[in-house]
Design brief:
Elements (H helix, E strand, L loop, with lengths): L16 H12 L8 H14 L3 H18 L3 H9 L3 H11 L17 H6 L3
Helix pairs in contact: 2-3, 3-5
């Protein structure tokens, strides 16, 4: 019978769990970003110009770069599209494209209801 000092299952008695755990954690948190310093500066300057504080700009920069990386897009193309569109709609759409259904972001819908629908709503 093998003595074990862990709650993890041992597949083979000759396995060294410490080595497996160390291998997992040395690769788990390695950076996977595939963007350049220029991409970062471009996205950061875009976000700083459109937000009211540095923390919001930093969070938005990280979110956009993460979405661009996951979707395998080019940051310059994405920022060009943002420049020519309503960012209240396009930024959440980009971020939602890289998220699962349970964590989707909402966005402002400024469409006015038709008069017939508005008439039916009691005020």
């Amino acid at each position: 019978m093998t003595t074990q000092n862990t709650a993890l299952p041992i597949i083979r008695s000759t396995d060294n769990i410490d080595i497996r755990v160390n291998e997992f954690f040395t690769t788990q948190f390695s950076p996977l970003g595939k963007f350049t310093d220029n991409d970062y500066e471009l996205v950061k300057s875009f976000c700083v110009n459109r937000t009211s504080n540095e923390e919001a700009a930093a969070s938005l920069t990280a979110a956009i770069l993460n979405a661009v990386n996951e979707l395998q897009l080019y940051a310059t193309d994405v920022i060009e599209k943002f420049e020519n569109s309503d960012t209240k709609v396009t930024i959440p759409l980009l971020l939602n494209a890289s998220r699962k259904g349970t964590s989707l972001l909402g966005f402002v819908n400024d469409k006015a209801p038709p008069p017939t629908v508005q008439q039916q709503v009691k005020t």
